[in-house]
Fold these 4 entries.
Entry 1:
Amino acid sequence: MTASLNRVPCTVVTGFLGAGKTTMIRHLLENANGRRLALIVNEFGDVGIDGEILKGCGVEACPEENIIELANGCLCCTVADDFVPALDRILGLEPKVDHIIIETSGLALPKPLVQAFQWPTVKSRVTVDGVVAVVDGPALAAGQVASDMDALAAQRAADDTLDHDDPVEEVFEDQVACADLVILSKSDLMDAADTVRANGLIDAHLARAVKVVPSAHGRVDPSVLLGLGLSVEDDIDNRKTHHDDELDHEHDDFDSFIVELPAVASPDELARRVAAAAERENVLRMKGFVAVDGKPMRLLLQAVGARVNHYYDRAWTPADDRRSRLVVIGLKGLDRAKIEKILLG
């Protein structure tokens, strides 16, 4: 491995939509154990929801100026345009940062991003300490990400409607294939049988000896996540993924758009409409900030399929754009008009 004494270590956190990356990173920032951290957040869509959540932490280890949001598309597709300038900005901070966390969007493939660390102008300054994949335990246990390729091939043979690979599966498989550590999130929501099923799906795509760590509420000891010292950029070409033979890749199999809503009277009623839209129109993910009538607090809503969570994260400030906006993400062909009609009630 290349010596990295003078290079800043970077941890790449990847994972499927709604797997719990932001929750885990927030816990990491709040328990940095003296490290001065910086964070690059790659939001899919043009509303920086995850960045806003993390900026709201207010933790000394990672002040707001150490958090950079990249909202111009998938980071693995825009490395030269977005990632390198962000890296330049972070490396110019004073006092110097000890470690950089990179949270990719749910649709990002880690391999092209890590390969950028091989570029001479990048490699001389930073190194990839490790790639951490966060996977949604209950979703896997319920078969919501069908990552067993043998079973998928059998299913395709029996059903003419499944004559192509699901792009969501490919993203999941590529993320696990590149991981040095897999975090099995929401472990408190699984029983023993669920855990066995979820681990079985993960193991099917681990070509190397990679540990799977269960986690509840994003609580993972920083000593488990940081300081791996693996210089992953020196090994990434040996990690085989679906896109190795492609010169480039796009995520044309996904749609993303923003729905603006008036202030709502009832968060629970909005959550019901969000769940209904997910069930009827095959929405993968929704997230955003919502204004509630008569409430000075900002409502944060996040949904994975029909599972909806919401809570008040902080008070609105005069600087905020006090509008209700939800980012909607799903497979290509989403019917925007129908989704908007359901959400607007």
Entry 2:
Amino acid sequence: MDVRIGVSQTAKELDIELAEGADVDVLKADIDQALADGSTLWITDRKGRQVGVPAEKIAYLELGSPDEARRIGFGG
């Protein structure tokens, strides 16, 4: 699963590739908790590195599978 995090006041996005067995429901619960508390969202990528983003800096989050086809152009 891939996570894309938009960070406010910067043009860059964080793209994080999670491990194969990552649980979407647990991740969503962690995201909701960090946003509710105003704490730091910590995510561990597939290589074991930890990425922390302060909740107040999160502009948006996208969750998806790397296997999903990415559409380009005007096709449907």
Entry 3:
Amino acid sequence: MTFYRTAAAILAAVVFLCGCSENTEKSSVKSETGNSEDTSSDSAVSENEDLCALAQSLSEDMAAGDFNSAVMLFSPELSAQLDESSLRTAWESTVASIGAFTGASETSEEQTGDNIIVKSVLLYEKKGLEVSYTFNSSGEIEGIWLSYRSLPAVPENGDSYTEQAIKIGSFELDGLLTMPNGVEDPPVVILVQGSGQSDMDESIGENKPFKDIAHGLADNGIAVIRYNKRYYQYPELADDSITVRDEIMEDVSAAAEYAGTVCGSGKIIIAGHSLGGMLAPVMCMEDPDIDAMISLAGSPRRLEDIIYDQNEAALKASGIEEELSPQLEALKEELEKISSLSETDTGEYLGVNAQYWRSLNDMDTVKAAESLDIPMLFVHGGDDFQVYADKDFEIWREHLGDRENCTFKLYEGLNHLFMRSNGRSDITEYDIKGNVSGEVISDISRWINGL
């Protein structure tokens, strides 16, 4: 998701056979075992065999409906957890929404201790599918994951801009640079997604708000950088020690460094959406090379406070608030624990590790914003049912409204994606295809070009 999640989960953890898109909750079971001690298995492949070629062959076999060749290479531990029928079911549910198989793409490998992780990428009509295998020293498969990948970027050349594929940071995150044609040293906007794992377009159903924004700003002479979130592209890297810096902030710093090679004397602007908008002041406070900031439906409050409000509003809308009030009280108790986590606390809270929550709660976004003297723009949709105009947006104005470097814009009738609301006030609203409001893009463009 690219917006704040309710009590289900905020950050998608490592999963096995992730049968979902970036737009839905991941609901599957991790199946990865330790190193196998059995080196005599008849299914083990020779150390001299090309594991990349093997992995690609296995992936193509599964795309064609043959799962036995992969299962025959499972280690005893993985075989005890996953049979051919379960593998087939998980695969079919994962590819059901991404169209027909169109071909194979690249493979890559990396050594991790005694194991080798090989990733093979298959191409489908709507999305790429990365199949990640963990091979032990005997050539057996000890772990297998499925995760979606963006299709290879096709550079776009319009009348007003050119789009090219780029890589961001040490993890080489897939991204796009949208450059306005005929503009020397343009300002560069770095788009930062909200919570959860999303692609560079911040895709939600058929909606691609970051693509809309990138093309709209480029039409107005502004360059834009957007890229996949780290754990969207590499879900297998997520573990119980990750923090919000791992998930978002380190890669934003890398994107800002890249932007410096693009803009020349132009300005660098952070534009964060939702959680990205919440963290944007901290990013700018920590990076003196950032010249301006835009918060798109960001909040100055703690995420756990917003989660409580979301759940309370959902119960009221359901008409069964009285029956479910005990669950709301239990949620409140859990959120209170999150608010008071100490360095010694471990475990998970609402499905997210304690270290992540602590790292998020360490971010005093209001204090950071108050310390900044760079231009800041705060925009919000009046019909946003996830981050509230009458609460979150007003808190920004209460703290910063008298500052000359701060500008505030509220758009009546627009939702969390800055698209026209259909009044549903739940996530089914995003099932309907829309586009980011042209008025919002025009206002942002004028603000940036006026810096």
Entry 4:
Amino acid sequence: MLPKLLYIDPGTGSMLFTVLLSVIGAAVYSVRVLANKLSAGGGRRKRPREGGASIAVFSDNKRYWNVFEPVCRELGKRGREVAYYTASKDDPVFSCGLPYVKPEYLGPGNKAYRKLNSISASVLLSTTPGLDVYQWKRSPGVGCYVHIPHAASEVVLYRMFGLDYYDTVLLSGEYQAEGIRALEKLRSLPAKDLRMVGIPYMDEMVRRLENAGPAPDHPLTVLLAPSWGKGAIFGKYGGKVLDALLSTGYHVIVRPHPQNMTVEKDMMDRIIADHPASDRLEWNFDVDNFEVLRRSDILISDFSGIIFDFTLVYDKPVIYTEPELDLSPYDAWWLKDMPLWTFSALPRLGMRLGEDNMQDVKSIIDSCLTDPRFAEGRRQVKAETWAHFGEGAACAADVLEEKYAQVCGKEDGKA
């Protein structure tokens, strides 16, 4: 039996353990910052090992093919091969038919990161945050790491230190750059090369929509597309939001987030059992969301990036719920005095839905569909977050070729 002086109750022990982990984490982070500074002060980066790819892509999930495809196509037009590393065995890249894209399946999760940690490439493009923070380490064989966001929203809503160790970040709005610069200042990080290139995948969506023409005749349709977690729509309201929507008489499509069906499967099984598909309620699990967005007249969501896809590409209003978002795990926590652009954009795009007004959801829907101020709001938000409209893939490819030229010491960027 331990002497009384050596006994620590479980609650206190847990607290002390948490404090210890925090101290260790802070120390590790400080060492990394110092190493990054020394690397930046040392002048030129290492060149990649001979035999590596000139430009490579890493995708941690098949759903990001739409982000990379326009850029890969543009690089192919310029005669540039792309090594495409993916953590999804069924990634669409394997059936894309693009001869200049060379796909390789790395395996799932940590297996993929272990391989990434030693690959060789002049430039590597990815939408995955957390480089050199957790399992994914910078490879000495990679000359330049480039990040491209997969949504038109704040990059400071990534998990903490999400972009700290990237060299270059491709952006679509000035508010994104302001957040990154503020974090660099707070953390004494060397300045990343920030490039305004626009949103290649949304440019592609616009072209696809123009080619598809008007949506087929359909009843007025409300699309419910939540994110996941306790602060998301189903986490906060459960099936009550569906009860309210069905009472409107409008056609309702529900498109759950992929994480709803894995992390929150028990909850979703109950909601689906209580609200089975019918002529007025449709559950949608398509991998490609193009058609379901095209035939919906209004979207209800929370903090999902689909809000900007829907309202800016399809030029339709949205209804949003205010998430109870705990910022402590995110980079935004460090920027408490900097208002989040997303929360200033949402009221211009549509109206808020909450517990207090859910019984009025039909009038909210009708107002959003008819009030001209939301059309003007979409115009404003589009101007703020969609630089180089229609030119995103070309602008991104320009940056990648420039970085390749810098890494390899070539003037023209050609191999």
